[in-house]
Amino acid sequence: MNRREFIKQTAVATVAMPSLLRAQADDRPNIVLFLADDMTWRDCGVYGNPEVQTPNLDQLSREGMRFDGCFTSTSICAPTRQQLYTGMFPVRNGAYPQGGFVRPGVKSMAHHFKALGYRVGIIGKQHYGPPESFPFEVLKTTGSNELLDADASIRVIQDFIDREPGQPYCLVVASRNPHLPYTKGPQDMYDPDKVTMPPYLIDTPETRKRLAAYYAEITALDAELGRCMQVISDNTLVVFSTEQGSAFPYGGKWTCYENGLHTGLIMRWPGKIEAGSSCDALVQYVDILPTLLQVAGGDPTQVDTGRAGAPDGGSGFDGKSFWHLVAENGNHHRDYVYGAYTNRGVRDGTDYPIRSVRSNRYKYIANLNHEGVFQCNVTRFMDEMGWAEAAEKNPALAPRVHALRHRPAVEFYDLENDPYELKNLSEDAQYAGIMKEMRAELDTWMAQQNDRGMETELEAYAHVNPASAKNKLYRESQNK
Ligand SMILES: [Ca+2]
Description:
CATH superfamily of the domain at 3-334: Alkaline Phosphatase, subunit A
Strand content: 5-15%
Bound molecules: calcium ion
């Protein structure tokens, strides 16, 4: 079957007429959104690392469509998840710092899918708030560290799926792997002495040891995916994402680098999405919810997110459905994807806002407090891994170690020739024109988001849990 025939088959699901569809409710698909946690997108065979064993992910990709240009805009857990669940970028929805909460009144996929008649559940990691913005049915597991392929978890998932056979469901399966600490999975499967070091890491014994343990957790995640797939019926759109990058130095978490913001995305829906296909159009996490709502028979352009400040001035999503990439054989969705990172609020984090804009070839990064020193968990991890000592022995490594803490105002990379962002071209005059254009795009996006850069960074604690000490401290400082 070619993609044109897929278009015909999917036409019913893509027409935005929920009232008509309700009568025949229920050839609408179920939706399962399966999330990894802190998995750098490159670290699986599907995206180019054959050493990491992920047979279930490989199979999912063979049966579905692999997206090669999907991006979150923030490489930390809570902002990433909440932009995915709200269809809004982090500064607009409010959940932009680590542990962030969305602004009062913001609605999420739990509201929007319920409005279409779906049951909406989540199992595993949550990392969102306040609760009234995320009225999911929370499926209980026996412990917060339980693997989602444990019998008890699978039983809970199966019960949720089977409970109302006539009503479609939307379920988020949010794994806690391969997030630190790297303790799960087949810890003897990867030999630290034999793993291939990616070009962005510095080769030390401790780095190797952590890399091997992290790979084992990716294999554990893959087992969770495989076990879940066994209880999911074919009339289900399964969406898998690697989430944001890993907690290694330059592994991507706490940065706007490719390893942090680029995310693996695979969509499988037998008979509706062509098996073994791929798409390299640029899309963002904020586009995923509008896409899923369209597939479920809704009209994402009519949704009220509960928050003003949409690109058209209304209260709709920041994102747009990219179902046309599947159903109409499209190959373009966005000219640019954006990143916004807040370091205040991360453990030991200095005030170090970073913003980025990426085209299909170039990446522009603005370090808005470049005169400051970047420091958080990841600089400590670098020290624990002995990178500074390695650079003392081999001075060629020193710039890489130095650059984790000390960065220029602007970084600019040609991703076609430098996919790991190892060579900053911002001083190269031949790129001045492109850099100016991209900076203008970034400024426009920040203005639309009401993102004030350093000022926004300094207000971070106003956007974490109101019951937390950080938030209380912030309120006290404002009352002085
Ligand atoms: Ca995460």
